[in-house]
Structure formats: structure tokens, C-alpha cells
Amino acid sequence: xxxxxxxxxxxxxxxxxxxxxxxxxxxxxxxxxxxxxxxxxxxxxxxxxxxxxxxxxxxxxxxxxxxxxxxxxxxxxxxxxxxxxxxxxxxxxxxxxxxxxxxxxxxxxxxxxxxxxxxxxxxxxxxxxxxxxxxxxxxxxxxxxxxxxxxxxxxxxxxxxxxxxxxxxxxxxxxxxxxxxxxxxxxxxxxxxxxxxxxxxxxxxxxxxxxxxxxxxxxxxxxxxxxxxxxxxxxxxxxxxxxxxxxxxxxxxxxxxxxxxxxxxxxxxxxxxxxxxxxxxxxxxxxxxxxxxxxxxxxxxxxxxxxxxxxxxxxxxxxxxxxxxxxxxxxxxxxxxxxxxxxxxxxxxxxxxxxxxxxxxxxxxxxxxxxxxxxxxxxxxxxxxxxxxxxxxxxxxxxxxxxxxxxxxxxxxxxxxxxxxxxxxxxxxxxxxxxxxxxxxxxxxxxxxx
Length: 450
Description:
By secondary structure, this protein is an alpha/beta fold. 34% of the residues lie in helices and 21% in strands. Helix 9 (221-238) packs parallel to helix 10 (250-262).
């Protein structure tokens, strides 16, 4: 594994932006140079001492690789849509160097054996570093209790409709999982009873041909709020570590902020699509932006952007969920829910930086630093001496229009005013200018320091 220096870089890390360089050897960051603290002779002698190639980045930006803590890579059970090999390739093309994959596969991943099977596939096929959730159900309380020993990143609890038997029914069963889980509980919060009642109401109006634009009127803010309140109450009662996934409404933000004032063990994420789209976009994109929870109003989108800045939202992910375009047909009830965005999430956030909504250090905090801290991911998410060299280089002055690498072959967005130039995974070049690189790059299983 070659040693190299990324020279003449604009480094975004830990709240700072500075001109410098990064020395990488054997896949590890060995030094980080701040040019304001070095004169030219010291810089030149340092390069000579290291005896390795310098890659001139011409002052383009370097940040830690993105850690996407919420993806569905579809393996096992739905590999016609995507698999660990194809979706991890899409990830590294977009600057995502590590991911945490959800358990609602076929079969659902609710046992140590199921987790190991996915880890074995990833060890063989993944270009990005990988971790996996253990799914909670009515039937695997013993597995949840031992989740830490399985190598799971967290326990996923669906408080709404999901795949297979990945549902926990009743307050008693949920309370047992919240009380016993040794790991963070990541919760999908939607109230199925409210959703089912809304479906019945719309069927009376439209029959089975409900327009996609009705999706947020079916999977409503009330459905999210009811379920999120239940999860927060259980977390406060039991002391569980709770991370509320893909928050999509302003009402939930007020509840979460109140809970965070009481307990530092409650956190929340949103996804890039909720910061980008609102319900007016269904007219243009139709089922391509249908996801669960539903994309809601412009007021919700603005409130979520405020919550990112205010610190109520701790992490930003994608809920990457590839489907074939043929599976996104048929209206609100038939079209599959999910958007393939892992390749474009960083580019989407860079657009928001250009709009003035966020700063670059804030984007790095929400997509790199905070995920590493929240999930106790060892030696990743920061540009620090001794950490793995997971790095992304991007040019905010060069537009890009990069074809989707995901097996599903499409995305609602592909054209941006910035370019992801290079992605390094464990010190190896994994992607360059919109294409994965054949070579030494290989993901590693994530380790946790909890």
C-alpha cells in the first residue's frame, strides 16, 4: 500500500477550514499539516523526508469520508434492485466511505447468524467500510439482549409497517426491548393505525388509483408524531439510548428538542431528501421521491434545515433504498417507497452550502463527525493522526452530471454544480470522477469503542 501526501488541500475538519496537507501511509493518516504553521522550507523538507509522492489538489477541498448510517443495500433477498457490491460502489463514488445497513432484508436480519452472513458478503464485496443493524421483533428478545456481542452497530426497531416480521407489537414488548438493549436503539417512527385509517379513507375517494401526491396525506405528520412520542416516552422511562431515524416533520422536532433537554441519550437524524424536497415536488418527480416517512410540506423542510443548524438534528443520512423504475409505477399504493441517494448525498449538501443554508464544517459535522461519535465508530469520521485514511476530495467550482452506479440505474437527481473528485477508503483510491476504481480498495468491518 503506497504512501502519499495530499498536498495543497483545503481541509475541512472539526469545525475548521485551513490550507494544508495530509500524509498517508499503510492506510493510516500519519500526519496533518497546517501550512500557516509551517514555512516553505519545512514543507519541502517534510516531503523529502517522507520520500513519497505528493498529489497536488490545487486547493480543492478535503474532508473525512461520509459515514451514512442509514442505507438499504438489498442483500440478501432483493439483489435485482441492488447488492452490497453495487451499492457500496455507488457510495464511494459519492464520497461515502462507511455505511450502516438496515436489517429489513428477506429474510430479516434478527439473529447473530444473519448478521454474520451479511458481514461475510461485505468482507468479500464491499468497497466501503461496513456495519449492520440487528432488527428487533416480537420473537428475538434474547438476540437483542446479546446484540453487543454480535458486532451489530445498533438495534433497529420499526414502530410502523416493515418487511417480514420486523415489527414489535404492543407497549409491553417495546418496553422490554428498550429496557434490555445494550446498544443504541434506532427507531422508525410511524403509527400504523393512523396510516391504515388514512389509506381506507383515500380508497373510498379514489379506489386503488390514489395519486402519489396523496402520500404525505396518508403517512401524515400525525402518524409520525404519535409514534415518535411513544418512542421518546419509552426512552425516558427506561433510560435507553434512542436515535430517531429520518425525522420529517416540524412537530417531531419540538418534541425531540424537549426530550433532549431532559436526556442526552436521545438524538435524531434527518435525510437529505427532507432537506431538499417538499410536497410541491411530487408534481415533477412523482413516485421517484416516494419514501417512508413521506416528504411533507415546505414548512417542514424549512424547520428541518433550522434544526440542523440549531443542533436538534445530529446526523444526516440518506435512507438509500434502490428500486427498479418499473417498481416505482402504479400510484400511491402500488409504487415502491424508497429513493437511491447514497451516491449524491454529499453533492446535495454542497448545493445547500452554496445556497447559504449550511457551512462546510457543519456538513462535515452532521455527515462525518457526529455519526462516528454517536455510533462509537473507531478511528473514522475525522482527519486525525492515527485514524484510517477515509477521505473525500471535492471541487465546488466544477459541475458534474454523473450516471447512477446503483444497480437500479436511476436517481431523481444527477446534475450538480460541484464534483466529487477522489474517494479514499483505508488509504486506497476507491473512486475517481464518477467511477469506482479497480485496484486495492476494499472496505473493512467497522469497529466500535462503546
